[in-house]
Design brief:
The structure holds two protein chains of two kinds. Chain A is of the alpha+beta class. Chain A folds into two domains: 3-210, 2-Layer Sandwich (PmbA/TldD fold), CATH 3.30.2290; 217-444, no CATH class. Chain A has helices at 62-79, 110-124, 188-191, 194-210, 225-237, 242-246, 306-312, 343-350, 399-404; strands at 10-26, 29-47, 50-57, 129-147, 152-170, 173-183, 217-223, 267-269, 291-295, 298-299, 319-320, 328-329, 333-336, 353-365, 370-382, 385-390, 394-398, 406-409, 414-422, 425-433, 436-444. In chain A, strands 3-2-1-4-5-6 form a six-stranded antiparallel beta sheet. Chain A has a six-stranded mixed beta sheet with strand order 10-9-8-13-20-19, with helices on one face. Chain A has a five-stranded mixed β-barrel with strand order 7-14-15-17-21. Chain B folds into two domains: 2-207, PmbA/TldD fold, CATH 3.30.2290; 213-436, no CATH class. In chain B, a hairpin with a 6-residue loop joins strand 5 (159-175) and strand 6. The radius of gyration of chain B is 24 Å and the shape is globular. Chain B starts with a helix and ends with a strand. The chains are: A alpha+beta, B alpha+beta. The interface between A and B is large, with 77 and 74 residues. Strand 3 of chain A pairs parallel with strand 2 of chain B, so a sheet runs across the interface.
């Protein structure tokens, strides 16, 4: 190999091979059946304080890939030398407890999958719904990891899922309802009662036509499991990612050991759970493990890659990548742990405010600790009782203020699968929470 | 795989496809990225693959691969998928008779041949721009250059090959003393005409100006959206309703609105695949239809929706050249080309006695893409007093409706900017509801 290789302290390769199938049914018609086969590799090389990275698709010459990445790292280090990057030590991961698959979706004929989607769609077409869409996704992939320290490991994963959406309209008003489930094995479609979920999506769309847009302002709010899970992921999880901390882009910098939330709050990231964010080892070959980000209100740990763990002192295992992209620090299955409060108690605690349900997405600014989320729907709470249905509601505020304004944590933790975007890459994750009562938050409405 | 494209077309016919299309795309990109004020990594990415549409008895199957070894299997899967589907009465066929316009400014040899050292230089310029003024640090960002090639072949005789280049710079900064505030700047172009130092400096200035924000009372007021903020809202809350696919599936807020006065008469909107050096410019769309300039809104009146070949066939009109793909891995769907907002330009801040100026918004993607309702958090927002920016605003939520916005535009700035494919000046909207 070329002369610069002696300056390369570390390199690693991830080879990803797999295929994905999608079927889209739209208003009763098959809109799309598509299948994609991919093969590719991502190679990282470290020279002093610089990383070089090469991604190649198709037929792969790993030796060439390592050389190309090494050359990039070498040139970067030569042009702008800086302090050498250290990596936290790791040992070979143990591959165990992969999610069990009872019914292999590859053994189900495509015609049967189409029939299933047709049934799901029919259930979403409740009275008042005038447009529906159902999507089936199946993906299988094999990941092989190798590095210059001799670590080698591999695993295969197969996941399936579906999403259904329904739209209802009346007098120029359009409202949508959505439901989705993702997991492992075709048995998901039996376990999750998908027909009921489809009906729920349809009913939500129809109900929302009559919903009012409330007046915004600061008020007490009850968050459902899905929206509270989005908060845990977006507002707390991202700010605890150590790469953002090192970039100076997190409000949680230098706060380990500090009380940053109500003592009722414990937030965990756990890639070993068989939820959608599961992995046996991360993109650096590090064994996956549970991390308590916040324990009883005290900020306990960042999420780390080998590089950030060496810099800040911590344990790696949260470095992930989409396909063969360059890995970055990311979450897996992130949730607020169960508390003790019952739903009725929480309504009583809120007394007059809003109950916000589901999520249409959100965004955070981790540096300033500001977030914005849109709820799917909600109810006004008057005298501790749910009253009118509301829509087009969003909440925003400061992460640390909200964490301290949590007055009750429910006992009904529920996880929701999704995809998280960071550094231009999507990764499968899940997030969840029990119901959360918050004494004061800014709600946007009409 | 480029050499295999023609062979794949023959394979598809042999496997029983009545019509077939091969979409080949490759790209090579190089990125140099920084964290804080030092360079962190250089990335080289080669991507190449083929997507196949096979038609059997008026039904379409699609499959793709980046592996030459899998190509034959992929072609067969596409044909088999088509056979599973029932004949689609709305399918009128793949494009034919491609006579292509000449477009310019989308390929720059200098970008193609850029050395890593030069890429490092541009990334450093971004960082140096942020350190021009004391008080901020970049958090992350980088420079990227890319070269792409695409080839479309179909059994109706379409054969079009194009090459293009792009460079982009992105920088995120944060204040390091006192009150924390952040800002970013971004630019993308077909050639090396971006001032990367200025991008860094702009972001840094904006973060500094945004510190020590005030709280404002909930009110209805004039709001001026910077091109970044306005294009974000347009893309999420308005554009989906112009997509003919959404119109045909009853998922658009603009059903039966053709010919109606949708906006103020000073406003026109064009979708232009031919715009000189545009990010969405090319001779052909992503299924071989010649690119064109389409008037979407003319003096406030909605003239047309945007079509790809399939939705145009279904509606009995011609495709507007909006067949678009995010990669070789997906079949074409309706997508915007260069989307140009045209409104008489003035020195808009100077012309505003009181109101709010918003640089960027977060949460635009949570908008209701059918009703056009949106509720966003404004970032780097300022009060306007007597024709000048006055004080930064700490936190601000803006709620509105994209269709209402079009009716309430009262001015546009001189600061036209290409935000990816959306080309717009700052836009002033009267009477928007804001919550501080």
């Amino acid at each position: 190999m070329a002369g610069f290789m002696q300056d390369i302290k570390f390199y690693d390769c991830r080879i990803v091979e797999g295929s994905s199938t999608s079927i889209i049914l739209d208003n009763g018609k098959i809109e799309e059946i598509s299948k994609n086969f991919t093969r590719g590799a991502g190679v990282r090389a470290l020279c002093g304080g610089s990383w070089g990275y090469t991604a190649v698709e198709g037929e792969i010459d790993l030796k060439q890939g390592v050389e190309a990445a090494s050359k990039l790292a070498f040139s970067m280090n030569k042009n702008t030398p800086k302090e050498a990057i250290e990596l936290a030590a790791v040992s070979s991961p143990e591959i165990k407890d992969l999610p069990e698959i009872k019914i292999d979706p590859r053994n189900i004929a495509i015609e049967d999958k189409v029939d299933l989607l047709k049934d799901i769609e029919a259930n979403a077409q409740v009275k008042g719904v005038n447009s529906t869409k159902v999507m089936y996704l199946e993906s299988e992939f094999k990941i092989e990891y190798r590095n210059s320290d001799g670590l080698e490991c591999a695993y295969e994963l197969l996941n399936v899922g579906f999403a259904v959406s329904a739209v209802a309209s009346e007098n120029g008003v359009y409202q949508a309802g959505r439901e989705s489930r993702f997991g492992y094995g075709y048995e998901l479609f039996e376990k999750e009662n998908v027909m009921e979920l489809a009906g729920k999506a349809g009913n939500t769309a129809v109900e929302l036509l009559k919903a009012k847009t409330p007046k915004g302002g600061e008020m007490p709010v009850l968050l459902d499991q899905e929206l509270a899970g989005v908060f845990a992921h977006e507002a707390v999880g991202h700010a605890s990612e150590a790469d953002l901390v090192l970039e100076g882009d997190s409000i949680l910098e230098n706060r380990i050991g500090e009380q940053i939330a109500s003592p009722l709050v414990t937030i965990v990231d756990d890639p070993t759970l068989h939820e959608f964010g599961y992995y046996p080892f991360d993109a650096e070959g590090v064994q996956s493990r549970r991390t308590e980000i916040i324990r009883d209100g005290i900020f306990n740990s960042y999420l780390h890659s080998r590089e950030t763990a060496a810099k800040l002192g911590g344990i790696p295992g949260n470095c992930r990548a989409q396909g063969y992209s360059m890995p970055v620090v990311r979450m897996s299955n992130t949730f607020v742990d169960n508390g003790k409060a019952k739903f009725e108690e929480m309504l009583e605690e809120i007394r007059d405010g809003m109950y916000l349900i589901g999520s249409r997405g959100g965004q955070v600014n981790t540096g300033e600790g500001i977030f914005q989320f849109n709820a799917e729907k909600g109810y006004l709470i008057k005298d501790g009782e749910l009253t009118e249905l509301i829509r087009d509601v969003s909440l925003s505020g400061k992460t640390l203020e909200i964490l301290n304004h949590i007055t009750l944590v429910g006992n009904d933790l529920k996880m929701t699968a999704g995809r998280c975007g960071k550094a231009g890459q999507l990764a499968p994750v899940s997030d969840g929470s029990p119901h959360l009562a918050i004494s004061k938050v800014l709600v946007g409405g009409a | 795989m480029y050499e295999l494209a023609r062979k794949a077309l023959l394979m598809a016919e042999k496997a029983g496809a009545e019509e077939a299309e091969i979409y080949y795309a490759s790209s090579h990109s190089t990125g140099v990225n920084f964290k804080k004020d030092s360079l962190d990594n250089a990335r080289d990415r080669f991507s190449e693959g083929i997507g196949i549409r096979a038609v059997v008895n008026g039904a379409v199957g699609f499959a793709s691969t980046n592996s030459a070894r899998e190509l034959e299997n992929t072609v067969e899967v596409a044909v088999a998928e088509a056979r599973v589907r029932e004949s689609d009465p709305d399918w009128t066929g793949l494009p034919s008779n491609g006579k292509y316009p000449v477009v310019s400014g989308i390929f720059d040899k200098k970008v193609e041949t850029l050395e890593l050292e030069e890429c490092i230089g541009y990334a450093m310029a971004l960082v140096e721009g942020t350190t021009e003024l004391p008080g901020t640090l970049p958090t992350s960002g980088g420079f990227t250059r890319a070269k792409a090639r695409q080839l479309i072949l179909n059994t109706n005789g379409i054969e079009i090959e194009e090459e293009s280049t792009a460079v982009s710079g992105f920088v995120d900064v944060i204040t390091i003393n006192g009150d924390t505030s952040t800002a970013y700047d971004f630019a993308i172009s077909r050639s090396l005409d971006i001032d990367f130092f200025a991008l860094g400096k702009n972001a840094s200035e904006l973060a500094l100006k945004s510190s020590d924000g005030i709280k404002i009372e909930p009110q209805k007021t004039d709001v001026i959206f910077h091109p970044f903020a306005f294009s974000d809202i347009l893309e999420e809350a308005l554009a989906p309703s112009i997509d003919s696919d959404n119109v045909q599936k009853r998922r658009s807020g603009l059903i039966d609105k053709l010919g109606e006065e949708l906006a103020v008469p000073e406003l026109s909107i064009y979708d232009d695949g031919l715009f000189e050096a545009g990010i969405e410019t090319s001779a052909s769309d992503d299924e071989g239809i010649p690119s064109q300039r389409t008037t979407v809104i003319e003096k406030g009146v909605l003239k047309t929706y945007l079509y790809d070949t399939y939705t145009a066939g279904k509606a009995g009109v011609n495709s507007t050249g909006n067949g678009s793909r995010s990669s070789y891995m997906s079949p074409p769907a309706v997508g915007l080309r260069n989307f140009i907002i045209d409104y008489p330009e003035t020195d808009i801040i100077a012309d505003t006695r009181s109101g709010i100026f918003v640089n960027t918004v977060i949460g635009a993607h949570t908008a209701n893409s059918i009703s056009g309702d949106f509720s966003v958090e404004a970032r780097n927002a300022f009060t306007i007093k007597d024709g000048a920016l006055d004080k930064p605003i700490k936190s601000l939520m803006i709620s509105g409706n994209a269709f209402e916005l079009l009716k309430n535009i009262t001015g546009a700035g001189l600061d036209v900017r290409k935000v990816g494919g959306i080309i717009t000046p700052s836009i002033r909207i009267s009477d928007l509801s804001v919550i501080g």
